[in-house]
Amino acid sequence: MYWIALKMLVGDRAKFLGIVTGLTFAALLIIQQGSIFCGLMLRTAAQITDITGADLWVMDPNVAFIDDVKPMLESNLYRVRGVEGVEWAVPLYKGMARAKLTTYRFRSGPRSNVFTSVLDWFSGQAEPARPPAGSTPSVERVDIIEQVILLGLDDSSMVGAPPPARILVGSLADLRKPDSIIVDRVGLRKLYPGQGWESASIEKLKAEFFRETRELEMNDRRAIIVGICEATRTFQSNPVVYTTYSRAKQYVPRERKILSFVLAKAEADQSAIEVAERIQGATGLGAKTSEQFMWMTIKYFLLYTGIPINFLTTVLLGFIVGTAIAGQTFYNFTIENIKQFGALKAMGATNLSIISMVLLQAAVVGVLGYGIGTGLGALFGWSSRNGELAFFTPWLLPVTGVAIILICVLASLISIQRVVRLEPAIVFRG
Amino acid sequence: MPEIPEAPPRHSAFAPRSDGSKVAVRIRGLCKYFGVGDQRVVALKEVDLDIFTAEMTLIVGPSGCGKTTLLSVVAGILNPDAGVVEIFGSEVSSMRDRQKTRFRARNIGFVFQQYNLLPALTAAENAAIPLVIAGWRKNPAVGRAKEILASLGMGKKVDSLPSQLSGGQQQRVAIARALSHDPKLLVCDEPTAALDHETGLTVMELLRDVAVKPDRAVAVVTHDNRVFHFGDRIAHMDDGKVIEIEDKQHDSGQDEYGAR
Ligand SMILES: Nc1ncnc2c1ncn2[C@@H]1O[C@H](COP(=O)(O)OP(=O)(O)O)[C@@H](O)[C@H]1O
Ligand SMILES: [Mg+2]
């Protein structure tokens, strides 16, 4: 009977492709939405988990999550160093700075895409006139002012720096040069808008971007870009600027309290949790292990921002829509073939053999849809690897597989009960 | 309470008639209703009928008189509300669904008005379905189906899809399918209704010449009076009842096989 089931399935090419497309779409939707959700959740925590070496974070006791910087007096660094069980402790500056620079831009009007055009249309704002097609684009000089995320790393140890593999051009050692900073690749999009550096190859960056001295200004002080790194993406889309702690202090207006975090390491024979408690007791500061701080941050995002919840809704919606589409297509297929199943039943095919036929058909389209869908999902993730999109998949693959199988089984169960209850007498009706 | 002796059967169930043909299907007091309350339709009202082997029995009558319903109950794909259907001594009407399914697979061949061929399967594959249901593997089943198709003059079309065949050819494939597992009872519902007259006649000839065998009964429902002459026995139905039985080969004195 199985060969009959398979022939029935592929016999009508259009229908067969329709079902597989439906399931592919469902798998793609689940993979895509799920990956973005995972990617986003990972992003929130990545600022913490990316800092290797240190296993303790010390901060103002009222800090709730990683972007919640409440500066402390620098003397706190020495108090942390004095706590028993702390092998070392270094300062970390994390804050916003205002970067200014002058660059050039092709005068081609502001950037827009489909969405912004629709937005313009709804808001009744006419899109600014573009230069007539064919006219040579003229280059204008523009002054850029951008809020950047400034990270100041301990001058000697550089704890908190991106790992070497993520430094695309230059090296950490370059930060020892005067006025040097390292900026993140995606941030180039805002600092040098419209020039495409954010998606340029490393070779091109090395050869062309650094052909001239890339200078910017923060708090009226010069900063020279000496390297480009891949920063941990966060919810904020600001460029990320790495420099040394002492220089970071000069890039922001002078304040009494300036120390954002103290990164510390527990001695080898000490448990990080105990040392954290000891720091808390001894200094009155907040002290967390990296892991505690990561969960604290994720929890904060879950509790106080709509982002994860909204995304979770979208993921669920994707799942439901995907399920509905796939289920519906497969159900329709079975129902369209109900007369054929009826004829088989009349001719003495048992319910069991008909159920196995339907299940086999479901399994085949399920596997195909899952395969193509995850393939496309992976392609999507791969193609957006350099972009703003958070995309993280691993554990979603089996989840999607299970989901798609569930969809197929569910859809086939519904259609199977139609087939099982089917009166074979329908075969005699016109 | 004194036991009431059972009335002797009017006709010994499986005693052969003078020409050796036997009762294949015995229908007694068969009733079938559709719907409930005001909507209730009485499709069969106490139908009595015998169908014999070695001949073609036509069930005829106006549209809506219950022919298809009768055939469905006889073939065991519709449960009656009252009455008995015995096929070669097995009481089909009281079988459980699984038993009935197995009984159909083994003993009954179907020919439908709309052919009901699977569009994705070739002629030979379609004709092989009953063998596959009986547990044959694909290749021997299709091989056997090709032989049968060839014997029905369809040898050149074994690999064609139903959509590549004319109506008459499709009905031949359907007949090949109905006969491939050598059933004891062949039921055909309006096999010529979708065909033009000429083609209908050849299909009826085919049924008469190939399907009718000494140990097989053939029941054909039709309302096409131009094919009535193919019937050895003709059961006329109206309004859910068998009102008259014409028996061409057996004298009218034996008209007690069924109609009341
Ligand atoms: N599934 C059904 N539900 C309700 N009524 C039915 C059903 N099948 C048949 N009938 C009714 O039973 C009667 C007999 O139908 P049918 O056996 O198809 O007649 P025929 O085949 O002689 O044209 C008709 O009145 C028809 O409307
Ligand atoms: Mg009918």
Provide an overview of this structure.
The complex is a heterodimer of chains A (430) and B (260). The model of chain A has no long low-confidence stretch (mean pLDDT 83). By secondary structure, chain A is α+β, with helices and mostly antiparallel strands. In chain A, 48% of the residues lie in helices and 18% in strands. Chain A contains 13 helices and 10 strands. The two termini of chain A are 26 Å apart. In chain B, the strands form 2 sheets. Chain B has a 6-stranded mixed beta sheet, with helices on both faces. In chain B, strands 2-1-4-5 form a 4-stranded antiparallel beta sheet, with helices on one face. The two termini of chain B are 31 Å apart. In chain B, helix 3 (123-133) packs across helix 4. Chain B is built from 6 helices and 10 strands. With 260 residues, chain B is of the alpha/beta class. Classes of the chains: A alpha+beta (430), B alpha/beta (260). The complex binds adenosine-5'-diphosphate and magnesium ion.
In short:
With 430 residues, chain A is of the alpha+beta class. Chain A has helices at 2-11, 13-49, 75-81, 114-123, 188-191, 202-207, 245-251, 272-283, 290-304, 307-336, 338-346, 351-383, 396-421; strands at residues 56-59, 86-106, 139-153, 167-169, 180-184, 215-218, 221-229, 240-244, 261-266, 286-289.
**Percent helix of chain B:** 25-40%
Mean pLDDT of chain A: 83
Helix content of chain A: 40-55%
Name the assembly state: heterodimer
